[in-house]
Amino acid sequence: MSQPLYPRRPQRRKTQKTRRIALLILVLLIVIAAAVTAVLVYRAQHSIIKNDLGLRNVALDQSLLETGGTYYSYQSGSENVVSSVGIDVSTYQGTIDWQAVKNAGVDYVIVRAAYRGYETGRIVPDDLFAQNVEGFSQALSEQEAVEEADYLLELIQGYPVDYPVVYDQEEYTADQARTDGLTGEQATKNALAFCERIYDAGYIPMIYTNNDWAQNMYDMEQLDHYPIWYADYTSSPDLSGGFAMWQYTDEGQVSGVQGPVDLNLLFLPAAS
Fold it and tell me: Could you tell me which residues come within 8 angstroms of residue 114 by beta carbon, excluding any fewer than 6 positions away?
């Protein structure tokens, strides 16, 4: 008995279904490509600058922070990070016994190089500028920030400066200052102008900030590709984007230094 003949199903539905699947796959690939591109662009814009110390901004695991000893310390195997302790000083600390400081276990020292007068706007060298790696700013514009960078570059020329050259712009509250009307947008531009000039000269730029300036003045997303020096005198410092150095007290006691001194942790790649 012959088999009954059935009409073939039309191919249109199958073709349309195939096209829809192909279109969905194409859209999905486009979305994935756009997401990957966005991530790569963001990383390119926010990647830490290349530097010989291997500095990067670290979000601390608070459980690994040791605060019980003479100096704070931090070590993370998963992030390959270990801390190094240092002090920052200026002429206010007077004459310092550097050998005693070294013997006390301090790994590095940041010395104020110069500052801009809050009234006159004149750049003035610190009495101890010969060992400086840091600057204090009252700049009103990118031009003044670059002027400060050039001034510092002249001061440190000939000295073996391996650690960061720091941009420190703070609010002067004891009296009226020429920077009283400075906006956060302009402060961010000033920091960028300073750091670009320092980096172009072959040094590692760093930006000093505290929580107030990070929250209310600086646009940290524009600055986070530079190492950040963060001042926070609590036991649980937290800054979006992390930081490369932490100033954890201004009341430290170190042999060789008269009176209280700032103590800092610099976060470096752990030795392999």
Answer: 123, 124, 125, 126, 129, 132, 135, 136, 148, 151, 152, 155
